[in-house]
Amino acid sequence: MNSKMRDHMPYGPLLALAMAAFITILTEALPAGLLPQMSQGLAVSEAWIGQTVTAYAIGSLLAAMPLTVATQGFRRRPLLLAAIAGFAIANTVTTFSTSFTLTLAARFLAGVAAGLLWALLAGYAARLVPERSKGRAIAIAMVGTPLALSLGVPAGTFLGNILGWRMCFGIISLQAMLLMAWVRFNVPDFAGKTEEKRLFLGHVFTLPGIRPVLFVVLAYVLAHNILYTYIAPFLQMAGLGSQTDMALLIFGITSLLGIWIVGLLIDQHLRALTLASSALFGISALVLGIAASEPVAVFIAIGAWGLAFGGAATLFQTALAQAAGDASDVAQSMLVTAWNTAIAGGGIVGGLLLHRFGVEAFPPALLVLLAATLRVTWSAKLHGFPAVQGLK
To answer: Which of 166, 284, 360, 390 is at 20 to 30 A from 135, Cα to Cα?
Structure first.
């Protein structure tokens, strides 16, 4: 009986965490689908509306590490509720704001909430289950990410055209408030760290395995965002400019398949899955480089890219959680910082490549980054991506 109870996955609490991830990604990405409507509503250019995404990323980038370190002693559920409340407040302000400056401030607040929430999610999911099930639990908690990208953002864009962009943010705010009730009554609480057990960033950064995982996150996500940010001009070169929505739909669907596969296998094969993800992404980049004029090959490559990327966040978060042990939340805040740095870097590096060399430079750049990712993952046999699962 006890064995059965230990093997049971707490789907209610884990799905609540997944919903938190869904709201986080939807809040971040939705302005991209509503640029014209928001531009008209706030009387600024679409380029300025694009900066609402930048403000969100900056808030997350600046807040993740200091907030996580400062709140180590806080009980976990109230802290999770505070992060979700940040989304409810920020999206409510966005719904009713007629000032671009106020909207930008609200987006920054949402980014701060995201920085804290992302640092909490993986560790929270891992604490809900026994050691042998941690990877699967994190995969379930992270399923909200590809769902938001593949379904949430397109649905939000569609509703924005029918109901208006303000109603879309109002719906997200309502979702956040409902989620707070779900978390309060269905997600267990955990104690924070006592003062003597709290760890500083410098100490956590030097733990075995932390730096290899963070490097892999930075290189892999940088490669992803160079291509994802500029997928439209890349497809235009391939003569598929009018089919960007189809390409992103294929990417989203195969991303869901990727996270499902990772969720099934991660607790036994984290290292192999990480290597396979990097290799498959690299093969996709190679195909995009040598067969960019073949529509079928391009769509197959995009599907393979989505399959590779879908479970990547789960793989990285699980590897970092295993390497960090009791310092998981602080380590995850470093991952949040590395991830958002890579997002910003993808826009900058991709833009420079596009301006100087054209989209033809994307596949070689991706291959260089992914080769580095494979090398570091392969080398981290003892710590980070251990050859023997559970080894520290």
So the answer is: 284
Q: What is the pLDDT of residue 388?
A: 65
What element of type H or E holds 137?
A: helix 134-141
Contacts of 288 (CB under 8 A, 6+ apart): 227, 234, 298, 301, 302, 362, 363
Contact at 8 Å (CB) between 258 and 376?
no
Q: At what angle do helices 11-33 and 153-163 cross, to 10 degrees?
A: 60
C-alpha pair distances (Å), 34 with each of 30, 47, 216, 239, 274: 7, 12, 32, 25, 34
Q: What is the 3-state secondary structure (H, E, C) of 14-72?
A: HHHHHHHHHHHHHHHHHHHHCHHHHHHHHCCCHHHHHHHHHHHHHHHHHHHHHHHHHCC
Query: What is the model's pLDDT at position 288?
Result: 92
Positive or negative torsion for Cα 181, 185, 186, 191:
positive
Give Cα 63 distance to the centre of its chain: 16
What token pair was written down for 321?
Answer: 């959680």
3-class secondary structure, 230: coil
What is the band of 210 on the pLDDT scale with cuts at 50, 70, 90?
very high
For the residues 143-148, what does the mean pLDDT come to? 84
* Sequence-ordered list of residues with C-beta below 8 angstroms from that of 24, at least 6 positions apart, any chain: 87, 113, 114, 117, 118, 144, 148
**Whether the Cβ atoms of residue 257 and residue 307 lie closer than 8 Å to each other:** yes
The answer to whether the beta carbons of residues 209 and 384 sit under 8 Å apart is yes
Residue from 148, 117, 151, 122 nearest 135 by CA? 122
**Which amino acid appears at position 58 of this protein?**
I
pLDDT at 268 over 60: yes
